[in-house]
Specification:
270 residues; D-Maltodextrin-Binding Protein, domain 2; 2 domains; five-stranded mixed β-sheet; 10 helices
Length: 270
């Protein structure tokens, strides 16, 4: 039987979920496909090029034939720091927004926040994630992932999207989770499953010190800052509060005509 193919981005925020498959106890149990953006991971899953992928949560509403792996996710219960709206003007003056083309969930989130909580309907433009170029043609820009951690914020208004969501809803925000193609479910869950996403997360959380050290070099950020990010800004538990936030996000996306009627959450068997 071929090894399961698992796709995930190489962003810092997913690293504890992926560590086991890259260099830990489960590295020989799968073919791990990394170095792709979250959007590309969703496309690989939809095309059947991956059996499971860490996907932006909005893609669950767009890809048929997939289920959610329970218990783990990438979420935030405070400010997230790596998903931000950067603006040349105060938020209520924003008339145009450049949307990072690598983003799916956050691109919908910023539309919801501006429409539902600020009563705004700016023009939205897709753009490559290059902040100076984005701000040349737009009042504001959505930037996600590791690039958001290292942008020069001087002279700019910066709005943390998780913090904004929490302020207006009182709920955590879920950005991504493991999704599995229905025909591949047996590779991950059930008696014959070889991959354990919960155990992988536990191993990753035990390796936070190693992860933070390595990303400190690549991002040129202090290691303690990255430890705080991975342990305080990011939450990896898909619990009841997170699910309530996720359900509200889908409902508001539908109200804003960004998705069809929300599909019910369907989880893999354990």
């Amino acid at each position: 039987m071929p090894s399961p193919r698992i796709a995930a981005s190489s962003y810092l925020n997913t690293s504890p979920l992926c560590y086991s498959f890259v260099r830990g106890k489960q590295r020989d149990l799968c073919e791990f496909l990394s170095d792709a953006s979250p959007a590309l991971c969703a496309e690989m899953l939809a095309r059947g090029e991956a059996d499971a992928a860490m996907i932006p949560v909005i893609e669950y509403q767009r890809i048929s034939g997939i289920k959610i792996s329970p218990h783990t996710c990438v979420s935030s219960r405070s400010r997230v720091r790596s998903v931000v709206l950067v603006s040349k003007v105060p938020v209520r003056q924003i008339q145009s927004v450049a949307l990072d083309t690598t983003s799916r969930t956050s691109a919908v989130l910023v539309r919801i926040l501006l429409a539902k909580f600020y009563g705004l309907s700016p023009e939205y433009r897709p753009a490559a994630p290059q902040l100076p170029e984005m701000l040349k043609s737009s009042d504001a820009a959505l930037v996600i992932g590791d690039p958001a951690m290292v942008i020069d914020r001087s002279g700019l208004e910066v709005y943390d999207l998780s913090e904004e969501w929490l302020k207006h809803t009182g709920l955590p925000f879920v950005f991504a989770f493991w999704a599995i193609r229905t025909e591949s479910e047996g590779l991950f869950h059930g008696a014959g499953g070889s991959i354990d996403f919960v155990a992988a997360l536990e191993e990753g959380l035990d390796s936070i010190d190693v992860i933070a050290s390595e990303y400190s070099i690549s991002l040129n950020l202090p290691k303690p800052d990255l430890v705080e990010y991975l342990t305080r800004n990011i939450s990896y538990k898909l619990d009841e509060d997170a699910l309530r936030g996720l359900s509200l996000y889908y409902s508001l996306a539908h109200e804003c005509n960004l998705i069809d009627s929300p599909r019910e959450l369907e989880f893999c068997s354990e």
